[in-house]
Design brief:
The protein is an alpha+beta fold. The protein has 11 helices and 17 strands.
Length: about 475
């Protein structure tokens, strides 16, 4: 019986692994435990599923030991535990654009089935899994840059809406059958992150170093019960203190690498848009059908909750629980960023090298990728008067866009402005200092809250910058 089950497991995992054999699996039905040794994953599968830019390719992924503990008698209350000793990942850049095979298009990260189905028992079990990884080592190779990333003691587990660990999986979900959604709360934490990099060719210069401690990520995932699709998500990343040492040559190599990745990503987006246009042309007959038009949902309306409560919440006229997810958002919070810059090129010319130290205290970044341009910002994280005033001046700006035209054109422009979308980004920094470093530290530019008796808290940042990008919905 055990041999038959091992064979079935190998058949199911053959698509995602390399050279997996039944002898690599140790299985015990009575205890609900399984052990897999020296597993090499399919690099093409991971490259596609993580949607990497075409100029990046995962070349090798190896897990030396995987242990699984399945509580068959209490799957509804206790999580399946997956323990991994060490994961080694090798990523390399490639010249030009690597074509994607798209052989894994039938798999969706938000769905445990290959076809749409209602959110059921299997989805609850999969969402409740706990994964522990002792160490993750990622190595990156590029003709101009070489680096490594080490993450220790990674834990991914379900939590309550208050981000506390619960002994019952039922407490880690918020389900609303009337409005057809369920919210799952997950948290990923790790002890330390160490990144090292060096520009090539290496002429003996110091390595780029980035060190961080005690980081965790909170994820609230809102899924539709009727088909398990992901409706909205909220991601919050909390970083500890960051220490980074960077030279001028490393900065140049890093900027060139980022430029290559950005250009490759833009190229991939253009290809996806072309494919999307071709797909729309092929299904134009279906979309033009009267029934299809009646069933279509306006872009500004939420598929589950009526638009009126959301608009009232965004305008600050309705209070909702902070644990609910009504739109996509991304949040980043960092304790302290200590950046050391060294002019190694001048040093190589036997001149006095310039050194600079830049310090940022309590940096916060909030991004809201998509909402109606006329929506309020009262629901944004730590929304102060400056953020709320955006609604007034953006309304004036949108209104001014329709002036100076004849009456017929103005009416069309006014209607189109009602469909306008916006992406909002807010960056805050509680304190900052820029220092020149010679034999001693010489302050150049610093924030000075104490002199002006400004409270030293997150609600009164030394720097606050907001960016709003407007766009029309596709199609």
């Amino acid at each position: 019986m055990t041999a038959v089950v091992k064979k079935k497991i190998v058949e199911k995992l053959a698509r995602f692994t390399k050279d997996l054999k039944p002898s690599d699996i140790s299985l015990s039905f009575l205890t609900g435990k399984a052990v897999l040794q020296k597993i090499e994953l399919n690099a093409d599968f991971l490259t596609e599923i993580f949607h990497l830019p075409p100029c990046l390719q995962i070349s090798r992924v190896v897990c030396d030991l995987i242990k699984a503990d399945v509580p068959f008698t209490s799957l509804g209350t206790n999580p399946i535990q997956i323990m991994i000793n060490k994961v080694e990942v090798e990523v390399a850049s490639c010249d030009g654009v690597t074509p994607r095979t798209k052989q894994f298009n039938d798999l969706k990260l938000g769905n445990s089935h290959n076809s749409p189905s209602t959110y059921g028992y299997v989805d609850k079990v999969v969402d409740g899994m706990k994964v522990s990884i002792h160490a993750v080592v990622l190595r990156f190779k590029d003709p101009t840059f070489e680096g490594s990333l080490e993450v220790s003691n990674v834990v991914i587990q379900s939590t309550t809406p208050q981000w506390k660990v619960s002994s019952h999986l039922k407490d880690t979900r918020f389900k609303n059958e009337e409005e057809d959604y369920v919210i799952v709360y997950k948290m990923c934490s790790w002890d330390s992150v160490k990144m090292e990099g060096v520009s090539l060719p290496n002429t003996g210069q110091d390595k780029l170093r980035l060190v961080s401690q005690e980081t965790f990520v909170r994820l609230a995932l809102k899924r539709r019960i009727s088909d398990c699709s992901v409706v909205h998500s909220r991601v919050s990343i909390h970083l500890g203190d960051l220490l980074c040492i960077l030279t001028q040559s490393q900065l140049r190599a890093t900027s060139l690498l980022i430029q290559r990745l950005t250009e490759s990503s833009l190229h991939m987006e253009e290809e996806e848009e072309e494919e999307e246009k071709e797909g729309k042309k092929a299904s134009s007959n279906t979309k033009n059908h009267p029934k299809a038009q009646k069933q279509s949902t306006p872009h500004h309306a939420h598929p589950s909750i009526p638009a009126t409560p959301i608009q009232a919440y965004q305008d600050g006229k309705l209070n909702l629980s902070p644990y609910l997810v009504i739109q996509d958002s991304f949040h980043l919070k960092c304790g302290k960023i200590d950046l050391h810059l060294d002019d190694d090129l001048v040093e190589q010319a036997h001149q006095n090298a310039g050194r600079m130290n830049i310090v940022f205290e309590r940096v916060m970044l909030d991004m809201y990728p998509d909402q109606a341009a006329r929506s309020g910002h009262h629901h944004w994280n730590r929304a102060n008067d400056l953020i709320k005033s955006n609604v007034k001046w953006s309304a004036k700006m949108l209104g001014a866009a329709s002036k100076g035209r004849d009456e017929g054109v103005e009416r069309d422009v006014f209607v189109s402005l009602g469909d306008l979308r916006e992406m909002g980004v807010v960056l805050r920094c509680a304190e900052f200092a820029i220092n020149a470093v010679r034999k001693k530290v010489l302050p150049l530019i610093t924030s000075d809250k104490a002199t002006f008796k400004i409270p030293d808290d997150d609600d009164n940042p030394a720097i606050q910058m907001g960016i709003t990008l407007y766009s029309y919905p596709k199609g």
